[in-house]
Amino acid sequence: MAAFGFQGTRDLSPQQMVVREKILDMVIDCFKRHGAKRLDTPAFELKEMLTEKYGEDSGLIYDLKDQGGELLSLRYDLTVPFARYLAMNKVKRMKRYQVGKVWRRESPTIVQGRYREFCQCDFDIAGQFDPMIPDAECLKIMCEVLSGLQLGDFLIKVNDRRILDGILAVCAVPQSKFHAICSSIDKLDKIPWKDVRHEMVAKKGLAPEVADRIGDYVQRHGGVSLVEEMFQDSRLSQNKQALEGLGDLRLLFEYLTLFGIAEKISFDLSLARGLDYYTGVIYEAVLLQTPAQAEECLSVGSVAAGGRYDGLVGVFDPKGHTVPCVGLSIGVERIFAILEERMKTAGLKIRTTETQVFVATPQKNFLHERLKLISELWDAGIKAELLYKNNPKLLTQLHYCEHMGIPLVVIIGEQELKEGVIKLRSVASREEVAIKRENLVAEIQKKLSES
């Protein structure tokens, strides 16, 4: 099991790293399939680059000690560094992915897979393109990753910041309160409407009738038919911003239908996504729990999220040149928590090494022969191990193979040396065959390709 590091961090055991690598490999394969290039950026950024980009969350940024006038902070996500990279390098078009650690001064709730240091996997499309084609591809990628990881049934909620702003405007929310009210709406997936309404009225000073008007909108969700319904809404259809957002969502649903994923998408008017930099379509994927899972209370919140942020690059560009961007982030820690829990429940044994062949001997004074033999295997690209002992017992060597799940053993002793052969033993079936020394590598490769 994992040892927890200091607060909000953890050490990952070899067993956990195996599970983690499988998740990352699957995610990265998907990103590559969609033509993305890999990018990496430093773990820290200039503090001024990060503040004011995250709204209420900017208090969670880790600041580093002032080292001679340089104020630096650990990166909070991979999106802001990407936007900074595009601006500094005057890149106008790029499809990139990045995998790396980010840091947040959260009060960690470990059970939900929330940490102060965690890994993010991001995919983004930057550039001026025809509307909603890249956005639809981002949602397709989310579906491919979540289906591929076999996490169970999921739903992707979609909304648009312009629709949300339009709703607040037509409900007569003062512009100065937009942000505060948005962050209340964003809690609707965790707490009921009456509590959200109470927060808006009692804590944020909104008139009760304004809150009720907002409630009529934000409790609604559905498919493309709800988009059409909103077009017909007498109040909302008066708002230019909301109409633009609805127009884009209508187009988005058309493309999602062509991609065969429309039934996985829900137009959800309560989705707000707290971050300040989103400008258009926003989305969030949640796992749908079976009744049994609900009883276990393994609630993990969203497992992937993202949206369109057309203004962020311009913030870093001295001349304010913008590059439209849309992207998504996969929540590796939460997915990892779910898969780990499942493997524990199923009692699955995880192999922590990929060793294919073990080099053994039944006799004393055979270390030199074993070393020559294993070197041949390594040079041929075969993953091989031996015990670091001059004269190990054969039983000890075979037990090690069983314990580590190593499939093949090659055995060399006096008899084999005399006859110019090597014994090849299958650990599972315990069958042994004698193979000519010079054919050993070819025979092992053949066996491995069959298994």
TrEMBL record:
<dbReference type="GO" id="GO:0006427">
    <property type="term" value="P:histidyl-tRNA aminoacylation"/>
</dbReference>
<dbReference type="InterPro" id="IPR006195">
    <property type="entry name" value="aa-tRNA-synth_II"/>
</dbReference>
<keyword id="KW-0436">Ligase</keyword>
<dbReference type="InterPro" id="IPR004154">
    <property type="entry name" value="Anticodon-bd"/>
</dbReference>
<dbReference type="Pfam" id="PF03129">
    <property type="entry name" value="HGTP_anticodon"/>
</dbReference>
<feature type="binding site">
    <location>
        <position position="124"/>
    </location>
    <ligand>
        <name>L-histidine</name>
    </ligand>
</feature>
<keyword id="KW-0030">Aminoacyl-tRNA synthetase</keyword>
<keyword id="KW-0547">Nucleotide-binding</keyword>
<dbReference type="Pfam" id="PF13393">
    <property type="entry name" value="tRNA-synt_His"/>
</dbReference>
<protein>
    <recommendedName>
        <fullName>histidine--tRNA ligase</fullName>
        <ecNumber>6.1.1.21</ecNumber>
    </recommendedName>
</protein>
<dbReference type="InterPro" id="IPR033656">
    <property type="entry name" value="HisRS_anticodon"/>
</dbReference>
<keyword id="KW-0648">Protein biosynthesis</keyword>
<feature type="binding site">
    <location>
        <position position="104"/>
    </location>
    <ligand>
        <name>L-histidine</name>
    </ligand>
</feature>
<dbReference type="GO" id="GO:0005524">
    <property type="term" value="F:ATP binding"/>
</dbReference>
<dbReference type="GO" id="GO:0004821">
    <property type="term" value="F:histidine-tRNA ligase activity"/>
</dbReference>
<feature type="binding site">
    <location>
        <begin position="277"/>
        <end position="278"/>
    </location>
    <ligand>
        <name>L-histidine</name>
    </ligand>
</feature>
<dbReference type="InterPro" id="IPR041715">
    <property type="entry name" value="HisRS-like_core"/>
</dbReference>
<feature type="domain" description="Aminoacyl-transfer RNA synthetases class-II family profile">
    <location>
        <begin position="1"/>
        <end position="362"/>
    </location>
</feature>
<dbReference type="InterPro" id="IPR015807">
    <property type="entry name" value="His-tRNA-ligase"/>
</dbReference>
<comment type="similarity">
    <text>Belongs to the class-II aminoacyl-tRNA synthetase family.</text>
</comment>
<feature type="binding site">
    <location>
        <position position="273"/>
    </location>
    <ligand>
        <name>L-histidine</name>
    </ligand>
</feature>
<feature type="binding site">
    <location>
        <begin position="77"/>
        <end position="79"/>
    </location>
    <ligand>
        <name>L-histidine</name>
    </ligand>
</feature>
<keyword id="KW-0067">ATP-binding</keyword>
<dbReference type="GO" id="GO:0005739">
    <property type="term" value="C:mitochondrion"/>
</dbReference>
<dbReference type="InterPro" id="IPR036621">
    <property type="entry name" value="Anticodon-bd_dom_sf"/>
</dbReference>
<dbReference type="GO" id="GO:0042802">
    <property type="term" value="F:identical protein binding"/>
</dbReference>
<dbReference type="GO" id="GO:0005829">
    <property type="term" value="C:cytosol"/>
</dbReference>
<dbReference type="InterPro" id="IPR045864">
    <property type="entry name" value="aa-tRNA-synth_II/BPL/LPL"/>
</dbReference>
<feature type="binding site">
    <location>
        <position position="120"/>
    </location>
    <ligand>
        <name>L-histidine</name>
    </ligand>
</feature>
<dbReference type="InterPro" id="IPR004516">
    <property type="entry name" value="HisRS/HisZ"/>
</dbReference>
<dbReference type="GO" id="GO:0003723">
    <property type="term" value="F:RNA binding"/>
</dbReference>
